[in-house]
Design goal:
Protein name: MoaD/ThiS family protein
Strand content: 25-35%
Number of strands: 6
InterPro entries: Beta-grasp_dom_sf (IPR012675), Mopterin_synth/thiamin_S_b (IPR016155), ThiS/MoaD-like (IPR003749)
Strand order of the largest sheet: 1-3-2-6-4-5
Order of helices and strands: EEHEHHEEE
Structural class: alpha/beta
Organism: Georgenia daeguensis
Largest sheet: 6 strands, mixed
Shape: globular
């Protein structure tokens, strides 16, 4: 199921967020489009998602890996997309057991 997270201030960057495993369970959806301001960081995205979806998702996001356009984003303080980018894909991958 895909939803759109409404925001009072629609920006210029859309983050297409895909949730996996425990992240999907905590979010209540498997994917959603999140409007953000140009220059928004992964930390901005995480804060918006935790505010919109609740503390259970916030806890999962705090320990999850974020893949931004297929690249692991370790520094959550850098912009999600290149200047002027219209969209990015963000995969939320919580820790899991097994191999």
């Amino acid at each position: 199921m895909t939803t759109r997270l409404d925001s009072p201030a629609v920006g210029t960057l859309t983050a297409r967020v895909r949730y996996f495993a425990a992240a999907a369970e905590a979010a209540g959806v498997t994917a959603e489009d999140v409007p953000l301001a140009d220059g928004a960081t992964a930390s901005d995205l995480v804060a918006a998602l935790a505010t919109a979806r609740g503390p259970a998702l916030g806890r999962v996001l705090a320990i999850s890996s974020l893949l931004v356009d297929d690249v692991v984003r370790e520094d959550r303080s850098t912009p999600l997309g290149a200047p002027g980018a219209a969209a990015v894909r963000v995969d939320v991958l919580p820790p899991f057991a097994g191999g």
